[in-house]
Amino acid sequence: MMSIRLLFVVFLPWLLLGGCASLSKDECLNADWRTIGYGDASEGYERTRINEHRQSCAQYNVRPDLDAYTRGYEDGLRVYCTAPKGYQQGVRGYTYRGICPRDLEGPFMEAYSFGREIYQTRNGIKSARGRRGRAAERLAAIEEEIAHTEAALIKGNMPPPKRALLLEDLKRLSEDKQATEREIYDLDQAIQDLRHRLAEMMANNPWER
Question: Is the per-residue pLDDT at 56 higher than 70?
Fold first, then answer.
């Protein structure tokens, strides 16, 4: 029986190829390299993605047609490097890899930046909501602990040292409560500001009307 180490050595290259392959066996054997180039560009991949295809297809003795790929890639750039596509990429949080030619990059980047700002604002609202929720949970726990501490102080027959400790705890809890309430207030203000900002952007959004 093969040892675990031998199995690892034998099958690791196959697993790496299978996990990282940009093209399947059928895609390599039946490749239309112009179509592949077109698809890569229209999806925002860099021109160097052909190197990944070359590695994927080498095991099937298939070599990419660089000329056909390049022609398709150039055609795909004309589809990708447009203002509507730039907005879509930005508002979805996708990374722009700097592939657009100079004559097309200006309108693309203007729309991309606008979409990216909307994406970041939405993420800011989501993040602030999450932080507010966690702060509200902490506040509820603090208030419950304050109630238990106050109930303990009401009870009689308590040694002075213990009472002093409970009073110190109550002071600390009250300070924590005030700080948490302030945090919640600040987060509410931040959420309100971000929502207002998002509403303004969407009202002046030429890409979603």
Answer: yes
HEC profile of 17-78 = HHHHCCCCHHHHHCCCHHHHHHHHHHCCCCCCHHHHHHHHHHCCCCCCCHHHHHHHHHHHHH
User: CA 154, 159, 163 angle in degrees (round to 5)?
Assistant: 50
The span from the CA of 126 to the CA of 110, in Å, is: 25
State the DSSP code for 65: -
Q: pTM here? A: 0.80
Angle in degrees, CA 49, 53, 55, rounded to 5: 115
* C-beta separation of 107 from 191 below 8 A: no
pLDDT at 91: 97
pLDDT of residue 20: 61
Contacts 24+ apart (CB under 8 A), 201-207: 201/114, 201/117, 201/118, 201/121, 202/118, 205/114, 205/118, 207/83, 207/84, 207/87, 207/88, 207/91, 207/111, 207/114, 207/115
Q: What is the pLDDT of residue 7?
A: 35
CB atoms within 10 A of CB 23: 19
- Domains observed in the chain: 11-80 (no CATH), 114-203 (1.10.287)
DSSP 176-194: HHHHHHHHHHHHHHHHHHH
pLDDT band at 192 (very low <50, low <70, confident <90, very high): very high
